[in-house]
Amino acid sequence: MRCVVTGGGGFLGTAIVTMLRARGDDVLVLGRNTYEHIEELGAESIAFDLTEAGASDNDLAELLLGADVVFHVAALAGMWGPYERYHAINVTGTENILRAARTAGVKRFVHTSSPSVTFHGHDEEGISEQDATYPDTFLFHYPATKARAEAFVLGENTGEFATTALRPHLIYGPGDPHLIPRLLARQRAGRLRRLGDGTNKVALTFVENAAAAHVQAADALQPGSANSGKAYFITDDEPVKVWTWLADLFRAVGAGEIRGSVPSWLAMPVAGFIEWAWRTFGLDGEPPITRFTVAQVSTSHWYSLDNARKDFGYTTVVSAEDAFQRTVDAFWV
After folding, report:
1. Is 25 helix (H, G, I), strand (E, B) or coil?
2. Residue 7: which residues within 8 A CB-CB, separation 6 or more?
3. What is the pLDDT of residue 55?
4. H or E segment and range at residue 5
5. Active site positions, annotated
6. DSSP characters over 90-120
7. For the purposes of burial, counting CB atoms within 10 Å of the CB of 163, is it exposed (0-12), middle (13-18) or buried (19 or more)?
């Protein structure tokens, strides 16, 4: 099978490419740069700016000729930055690659979305895709632009061009450049505090399980298939008490104990004030805390996997125990 993976040089993208190459698929990676580690896997790596509109459409479609499926993983994540940048990458980039795929005759398009597109800022436990709606307002540009991109992708599903969107939640594991390293840095600096009462349950997704979901969804996807035109939550099999999980991880990697806690009712207005200060005074870098961060780490949010299991056979490939140990091994210093 001929596969194209945008953002294939990143954390999740690399895991998808590794899985596709392991079973013998022909893979082309489109990214901001070319990647030596991708080429070492036997995949082709080409630098291409997906945000360029209009003039590059034909060039992009030409790169996709002969592809059976496009995995659109590329996105701008993070908790801070100008809306225009998020829109360019997450919305315009998605529109460009999907239209080019359709022009090139590709029949299947798998889009990496996020559960944050339906996060309303309060506890959401065991909800299914049918229960999840886009909020009227978002706490930050990332979920706002990802929601717009997801809606566009699903709206382009037709009887001849099949699309689906996956919403992996809090991806972690060896090679993680964002979630675990940031938390560990704050913990080792003595600046991490538990937010909330510590009892909230959160779904995590080991990176290989997230990659497996993408491959499984693509294999099942066809015009008119059960998963065409639909979005799916993707996580490990069971949620965890996230602050207990983090405490266990920190102890296992020698990062000590979490020092103290802040109630969420206090953390939320403080985060709002900090965001105001960063915007008003144009301070450099990301704020130390945002309202979105507070809401994410102090509430329960985990999801039903029934639809993913039923519609395209989603099955985790790494157990929670193995995933935890492999993460410990990767971050032990």
Report:
1. coil
2. 13, 30, 31, 72, 73, 74, 75, 112
3. 39
4. strand 2-6
5. 142
6. IIIHHHHHHHHHHHTT--EEEEE--GGGG--
7. buried
Residue type at position 302:
W
Q: Which residue has the tokens 């717009």?
A: 148
DSSP conformational letter for 132: -
CA-based nearest residue to 242, from 207, 281, 286, 192: 192
Report d(CA 190, CA 329) in Å as an integer: 22
End-to-end CA distance of the chain: 40
What is the pLDDT, as a whole number, of residue 145? 97
User: Within 10 A of 159 (CB to CB), how many other CB atoms are there?
Assistant: 8
Cβ neighbours, 10 Å, residue 136 = 6
Cα 217 to Cα 295: distance, rounded to the nearest angstrom: 30
Which of 26, 171, 221 minimizes the C-alpha distance to 17? 26
Residue 315 is given by DSSP the state: -
Instruction: Render each residue's pLDDT in the chain as its tens digit; 333 residues.
Output: 999 999 999 999 999 999 999 999 999 999 999 999 999 999 999 999 999 754 356 789 999 999 999 999 999 987 777 899 999 999 999 999 999 999 999 999 999 999 999 998 889 999 999 999 999 988 789 999 999 999 999 999 999 999 999 999 999 999 999 889 988 998 999 988 998 888 999 999 999 999 999 999 999 999 999 999 999 999 999 999 999 999 999 999 999 999 988 888 787 788 788 878 887 877 777 887 777 778 777 899 999 999 999 999 999 999 999 999 999 999 986
Residues 251, 247: Cα–Cα separation, whole Å: 6
What tokens were used for 278?
């960063």
Domain layout of the chain by residue ranges: 2-176+203-237+303-318
Tokens of 81: 């930055």
Q: How many alpha carbons lie under 13 Å from residue 296 in its C-beta half-sphere?
A: 21
How many other CB atoms are found less than 10 A from the CB of residue 134? 15
Distance of CA 29 to the CA centre of its chain: 17
CATH assignment, 2-176+203-237+303-318: 3.40.50.720
Distance of CA 89 to the CA centre of its chain: 14
